Amino acid sequence: MLGLLLRDGDWVTASALADALGVTPRSIRSYVTAANARVAPGVAVESGPQGYRAGSDGAAALRAGGDTGTPRDRLHTLVRALLDAPDGIDVFETADALHVSPATLDADLARVRGLLGGTELTLERSASRARLRGTEAAQRRLLSKLAHDEMDAGSFDLAALRRTLGEGSVGAQAFGPFKAELVARLGELGWFVNEFGIADVVMHIAIAADRTSRDRPLDAAGSTQRERPTQSQVAEIIAELSERHLGVRLGGADLQHLATLVLTRVVAPDGHEDAASGAVTSSLDPEIEAVVREVVTAAADEFLVDIAHEDFVARLALHVQNLLHRAREQAWSRNPLTRSLKSTYPMIFEVAVFIASRLQQRLGIPLPDDEIAYIAMHVGGRLERSRRADQLLTATIVCPGYYDLHELLRSSVDRSLGQAIEVVGVETRADPDWASIDTDLVLTTIDPPTTNDRIVRIQPFLTDSDVERVQAAAGRIRRSRRLARLRAELERYFEPSAFLRGLDEAAGEEGVIRGLGALLQAREVIDAEYVERTIERERLSSTAFTDALAVPHALEMTASRTAIAIGIADPSIPWGDGRVQVVALVAFSETDREAFQTVFEQFVEVFSERDSVQRLVRRGTDFNAFLDELVAVIDG
């Protein structure tokens, strides 16, 4: 709840929070009380007539944690106990220590088994004893999983890390200076440090130091990594800093593993772009580069995006090469921007999912959401560089001639607003032909005969408030155009007979997809294979692009025609790591390839507004009512 309120930043009703979390409004009120108790006498959550919003101490309450009675904290305490006890724990003694019944602890042990997927660990139970079996590397992966779970949205938090490792963990207060010196020393070697990755590496160093201090070093036989160039230099730095800051002497296997993480996760050649590109190319595996080039070309053709450039291929190929090393170690890198990238740039994320899918097929590496988000950052960076000038709004300045006043004004507009608008004309008459001005915006220093959204009154000498009003007008025009295109597309693509209200939570994601897919199959829009490929796409990465909307679809556009099936869930149903209330199964045909971007991005934009979602869910009792409400929301 705290995470949702902090991300939203505005008032949210109890019912909306309840829908998002899958609980009752009464539970929300008890959560608010508990959150405020964490930071008393501070305020974690403010209450008012409009609902709840994050208070000044909301972030502190989120970091505080420590409610040992909550299921998650109890689960983490239990896992730590299992990890610290090679001979296992006594179930009854542990239940007493946690102040729960043996039956509750048995249920918690079942949840522990759910955490073990992909860790190569097993939980054994014999009479009253329970123990974990598996390698030290596998146990550390489980600790890493716990630490990430403690950290909201994957962001690095030393307090959360200490909760994961235990209050007595080694050097918990030393990691700030440790991290600063590690970054400085890597910089001296001529490497640029990726700040998103360095926090993850520090977490792994903390785990290694803690386990080594408990006489649980990494087994040298378990290390499969070949020594890479400069690995010994990085290992020496980590060894020195660990001994000086943490008071722990790490073994050779630990140092090799951690140096590999540094080289594959946080560093890239420093210097200017041309120099960096040259360094990248010289260190690339030609086979990986060829695969990446092929995949990027396919993505550019499939989504009509301008990413097939040599510098983009080279940088992404180096990222994939490092990704292969991380995959061998099963040391995935967390990305704190995953959630925001997915909800704000769904189209870019979808291109990244396509690339990840093809890389998985060609190179045999599974890619979790956080790794897909890093690919999305590469894609977004390339598209930002190649954004076309014709995406700018055009503007005409109306400024009656007086010496060079109009020229000074145009210069000010270009300097302050050049990234948002392009001035294509200047009217210096006091009585211009207003009807003949057909640019997107009109910036005028005199009063126009009529007013509308595209005419903005400004001062002859541009002020900060003028700049803000022009930017706001430009934003409104762009949004209205996007949503107008969306409305036209949706009215074409919605299938009236493919509307289902009351989605069954018990069916799960696959069941919901099959149910909505059957409605489109009945209209001969798609076949059974399309439904299966939609399920495959869902397994790659959840299509819950906002806190309320999932948009399942297949990666290939093979529908006979483009159509959308809508499912409404009231109350919300689980989807991915969250819950949704609207599921839109979208089937695209090859001929509507260009419409994909319009529908995908703007549809997600509409459903990112919580009030709009509540309105659609509550009033959309049938297809016609849903469409009427959606059009009303789009039209504002």
Automatic annotation (TrEMBL):
Keywords, A to Z, come to: Repeat
| Domain PRD per the UniProt entry, residue ranges | 283-389
Matching SUPFAM superfamilies: Phoshotransferase/anion transport protein, PTS-regulatory domain, PRD
Q: Which GO terms describe its biological process?
A: regulation of DNA-templated transcription
Where does the PTS EIIA type-2 domain start and stop, copy by copy?
492-636
Q: Does the keyword Repeat apply?
A: yes
UniProt keyword Transport present? no
From the UniProt annotation, give the residues forming the signal peptide.
Answer: none
Q: What is the protein name stated in its UniProt record?
A: Putative licABCH operon regulator
Q: Which organism is it from?
A: Microbacterium trichothecenolyticum
